Amino acid sequence: MEMPHMVEQMTKESRDFLEAESLRVAKRVLGCKHLTAVKIARVHPPGSGPNWYPVEFIPPLPPMAEAEARKAIASLTGKYALMGT
């Protein structure tokens, strides 16, 4: 019996939506209030897993703030899938 892919069970959203939502979540993190954009990249995971991740923060963040922003955005990568191929 084949297991369904996790990505198929997630809500599929556009790049614009995911970048805006990532920005909203990241701006709540200490040291990230000044962010103006979060850029994402598609990944093709083997099996079931998130199919996107944050690739760039604008303006760039200090290492500690970036690590915390990535942790905050991780909750979104488990909830939403990037639509398309």
Describe this structure in words.
The chain is built from three helices and four strands. Strands 1-4 form a two-stranded parallel ribbon. The radius of gyration is 13 Å and the shape is elongated. The longest helix is centred in the last third of the chain and has 15 residues, at 63-77. 21% of the residues are buried. With 85 residues, the protein is an alpha+beta fold. It has one domain (7-82). It has helices at residues 6-9, 15-26, 63-77; strands at residues 11-13, 37-42, 52-58, 80-82.
**Total count of helical runs of at least 4 residues:** 3
The largest sheet, given as strand count, sense and whether it forms a barrel, is:
2 strands, parallel
- What's the alpha carbon Rg, rounded to whole Å? 13 Å
Shape: elongated
What is the total number of structural domains?
A: 1
Number of strands: 4
**Which segments are poorly predicted (pLDDT under 50) over 5 or more consecutive residues?**
1-7
Helix proportion range: 25-40%
Estimated share of beta-strand residues? 15-25%
- Sheet with the most strands: spatial strand order: 1-4
Sequence of secondary-structure elements? HEHEEHE
Mean pLDDT: 89
